[in-house]
Amino acid sequence: MADEQKSDFKRQTAFKCNIDTLNKGVFVKRPGWESSYLMTDYGDFSRVNIIAVIVSKDENSITLDDGTGQIVARVFDKLELISNTTIGEPILMIARPREYNNQIYLTIDLIKKINDKGWIAYRKKELTLIKKIRDTVHQEVKKEAEIVESPSTMSSKERIISLIKELDNGEGADIDEIIRFAKIKNAEELIQDFILRGEIFELRPGKIKLM
To answer: At residue 37, what are phi and psi to the nearest 5 degrees?
Structure first.
């Protein structure tokens, strides 16, 4: 069972991102076999894929720079992963975000040397496109949340009254339209309660007006 969990852990998607995104993230440590992850503006990353240049190196770590920032990447038992790398060399790295003393760093899973530095420029263009897509999705989610939450800025009853005023063209407001625009689960019950209390009256079926 443990071997299966380890296998699943290794198969996690490595998300493409830049170093700035990693440095601005918030690390969330999970217990046991649950995957820890870095919470960012573009999602929660347990494993990342970055292209950068090695700017410094020691026995068990290298420092990477991709033009948006720098980050340290470490190895603990597979020193061969960095033994053949050199300063100034562009690489593609698959790694896992970690945190120590409130500082984000990476533990290396895989390093691939890149002979053509054009890949760095290509990755920048690629990340620009990915950012646009992620920003669009983020904005859509935010708008949906605002639509759901907007009724809470006033009480449900106040919102019903406000909509009756807005939708009444002199011949009463349409109940179905009030329910649709209110986006309140119990809108129909509230309207009936208003009618019973005499606060609004029904001109004719489906049309109501404030007293």
So the answer is: -155, 165
For helices 187-197 and 175-182, angle between their N-to-C axes, nearest 10 degrees = 130
Give the burial string for 26-59 (b: 16+ CB within 10 Å, else e): ebeeeeeeeeebbebebeebbbbbbbbbbeeeee
Which tokens in the block code for residue 151? 């009724």
For the stretch 167-195, pLDDT in tens is: 887 788 888 888 877 777 788 888 887 77
What is the CATH T-level fold of the domain 2-121, as seen in this structure?
Answer: OB fold (Dihydrolipoamide Acetyltransferase, E2P) (2.40.50)
pTM of the model: 0.60
Q: What residues does each domain of the chain span?
A: 2-121, 151-210
User: Is the sign of the CA dihedral 76, 79, 81, 86 positive or negative?
Assistant: positive
**Distance (Å, rounded) from C-alpha 124 to C-alpha 37?**
23
Q: Tens digit of pLDDT for each residue in 51-88?
A: 999 999 998 999 999 999 999 999 988 888 998 899 99
Range list of H helices, 40-155: 80-83, 118-149
Smallest CA-to-CA distance from 27 within 37, 17, 18 is with: 37
